[in-house]
């Protein structure tokens, strides 16, 4: 898919205030600092489109972008940031839960996982939560450029083993680096495929 146009539309905390649910929507989520906003900028080839930061917790709202006038891309706030207060974590949980349950045009969620780390409970819990909710999702391993491909293979194998303990069917998995532009064609190709189904 060629990205002809990518524009920021709005930021919200409420599903009711999001753009009209008249186009397929793809949402990006994952632990704080995993590289959600960087991946969105890499996919759209617009450096400053989604705000990135080296300190976690940068994205706080549901951010809608319109791509090629035909589908929505959504940057969601991350989870699992230790310094967040209990109240703020509960607010996040409520907002995200409501979004997943009520956003009728939500087509697929991209769950981002840092390819450098062994499976983390917070990520497995989140994947299992999405699976139980019945929301279609795929897994995106990020920051491939930070280590050897052997290490990436071992992380992916460990996640595969863990997920097999609970699920018969495994989600589709992508390998990416925002830094080195790895995985761009694969993800955009997947979105195009789903959009034309
Ligand atoms: P929050 O919005 O805070 O939840 O973070 P986020 O998941 O949107 O992460 P963000 O894109 O802001 O990136 C966090 C940090 O990781 C930044 O310093 C990025 O430059 C860095 N980063 C993101 N993707 C990559 C990558 O593929 N390779 C490398 N080397 N660094 C990356
Ligand atoms: Mg972000």
Automatic annotation (TrEMBL):
Q: Which domain of life is it from?
A: Bacteria
Give the cofactors, semicolon-separated. Answer: Mg(2+)
**UniProt keyword terms in alphabetical order:** Cell cycle, Cell division, GTP-binding, Magnesium, Metal-binding, Nucleotide-binding, Septation
Where the record annotates domain EngB-type G, the positions are: 22-197
Instruction: Answer yes or no on keyword Transmembrane helix.
Output: no
Tell me which Pfam families the record gives. Answer: MMR_HSR1
Q: What does this protein do?
A: Necessary for normal cell division and for the maintenance of normal septation.
- Name of the protein this chain belongs to: Probable GTP-binding protein EngB
Tell me the organism: Pontibacter locisalis
């Amino acid at each position: 898919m060629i990205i002809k146009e990518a524009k920021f539309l709005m930021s919200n905390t409420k599903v009711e205030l999001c753009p009209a649910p008249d186009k397929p929507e793809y949402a990006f989520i994952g632990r704080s600092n995993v590289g959600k906003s960087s991946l969105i900028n890499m996919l759209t080839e617009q450096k400053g489109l989604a705000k990135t930061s080296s300190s976690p917790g940068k994205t706080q709202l549901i951010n809608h972008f319109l791509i090629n006038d035909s589908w929505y891309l959504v940057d969601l706030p991350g989870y699992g940031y230790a310094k967040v207060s209990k109240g703020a974590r509960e607010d996040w949980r409520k907002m995200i839960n409501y979004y997943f349950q009520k956003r009728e045009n939500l087509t697929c969620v991209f769950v981002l996982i840092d390819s450098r780390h062994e499976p983390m409970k917070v990520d497995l819990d989140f994947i299992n939560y999405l699976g139980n909710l019945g929301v279609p999702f795929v897994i995106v391993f990020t920051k491939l450029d930070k280590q050897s491909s052997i290490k990436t293979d071992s992380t992916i194998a460990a996640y595969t083993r863990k997920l097999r303990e609970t699920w018969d069917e495994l989600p589709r998995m992508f390998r990416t680096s925002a830094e080195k532009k790895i995985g761009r064609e694969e993800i955009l190709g997947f979105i195009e495929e789903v959009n034309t189904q």
